[in-house]
Amino acid sequence: MRPVEFIADNEVKLLHCGTEFFPALVEAIDAAQYDIYFETYIFADDETGQAVLAALMRAGQRGVTVRVITDWFGTGNGRSNRIHAQLGEAGVEHRIFNPWFRRGVTRTHRKICVVDRCIAFVGGINVNDDMYCDYDHSISLCAPRWDFAVAVEGPLVAAIHKEAEAQWLRLGRMTLKHRIDLYNELRRANKVAAESTVRAGFVVRDNLRNRQTIQKAYLNALGRARKSVLLANPYFAPGRKFRRALSQTAQRGVEVVLLIGVGEHWLQDAVAHSFYPKLLASGVKVVEYHKTQLHAKVAVIDDEWATVGSSNVDGLSLFLNQEANVVIKDAAFAIDLRRHIEAAVAEGVEIHPHEYEHVGRFRRIGYEIAYVVYKTLMRIFAVGKYA
C-alpha cells in the first residue's frame, strides 16, 4: 500500500459543528485578497447558505477571483441554477459537478475551501444549517448535527490548493494533452522536509488515479494500531477488506470502538446491522448514536493518527464518490478529537452480542437481503471494487 504523503510544519485546527466552522470560514473569505476555490456537496437555501453565499459574492465584488463548485445531485438542479445566477451577478465563477449524471453516477462529495493559498478548510460539513436534517430541511434536529472540519495553515495548503484548482480545470474545457499533463502533475509527490510536531497529509478519492487511496490510508493505519481505534461514521457499509481489518485489529487486543449514525435510511441501517454479529464476536465495540444526526467522518488511532474528511465508510464514498480527507499525525490534535468521540460514545447506545441472539429469523433474513442488494449495486457502480 502506498502510504499517505505527510507534509510537516502545519497548523491544523479542529472545528466542531457549524457553530465553529462557518464563522471561521466566512472570516477567511472576507479577508481574501487574491483567490478562493470553494467546493461542496450541499449548498442549502437557508440562513447558513445565504451567509456563505453572501461572503463569496462580497469577495467577487471586491475583485477576488472566486471559483465555486457545487454538486448537481447534492445541491439540486433548481438551487444550483439559482446559485449560478446569483454568483454570476457578483463576478463569481461557478461550475456544477456532473449535471444530469452526464459523466456517470459519480458525485463530488468533497467539502473544500482554499483562500489565498494560505488557509484551507476540509471536512464533512456541508453548507447548511446545523439544526435541520441535511437530506430533508423540513425535519428539525433535537441537537446540532454532529460533524467536523479542519482549518489548515502551512505547507499542506499548497497540496490542497493544487487539487482544488485541478478539479476546477477538469470541469472546464481541456484538451486531451492538458488533461494528461494535469494527471501527471498530480501524481507527483508533494513532500516538504522539515522538523515539526504536526505532520499532515491530504488524500483524495476519484475514479482515475486515486480509486482506493482513502480506504488504503485507513487499512494502513489499522494495520499499525497497537492500543486503540475510535471510528465514527454515519453510513457503515464497507467491503470485506475493511471489515476484516477492523475484526483482526480487535482480535490482536486493540480496543476498537465503532460509533455509527442510525435512523436516516432503513436500507443503510439494515446493511450495517448485518455486520454486527461478526464484528461483535471479534471484539469490536459497536455504539449507535441517536441524539442527533451524526454526519462526521472521523477516526483516531493510538492517539497519534487522526483523520477528518468527507469520506464515509461505505461503498459510495470508498469506491464511487469523489472525496477528500486530511490525515493528521499529532498527539494534541488526536487527543482533542478523541475527547469529542468519547463524549458521543457516552451518549450513544452500545450494542451487545446477546441482543442479536434474539433477533427473529425474518429480521435476520431482511438484514442479509439488504446487504446482498447493497453489495450488488456497489459491484455494478464501483466496477467490482466493492470487496
Task: Provide a descriptive summary of the structure in words.
With 387 residues, the chain is an alpha+beta fold. It has helices at 17-31, 47-61, 72-75, 77-89, 156-170, 176-187, 213-224, 240-251, 266-281, 315-319, 331-347, 353-357, 361-381, and strands at residues 7-8, 11-16, 35-40, 65-71, 93-97, 112-115, 119-123, 148-153, 199-205, 228-233, 255-261, 285-289, 298-301, 305-309, 323-329, 349-351. The strands form 2 sheets. A 9-stranded mixed sheet has the order 1-9-15-14-13-10-11-12-16, sandwiched between helices. The protein has a 7-stranded mixed sheet with strand order 2-8-7-6-3-4-5, with helices on both faces. The longest helix is centred in the last third of the chain and has 21 residues, at 361-381.
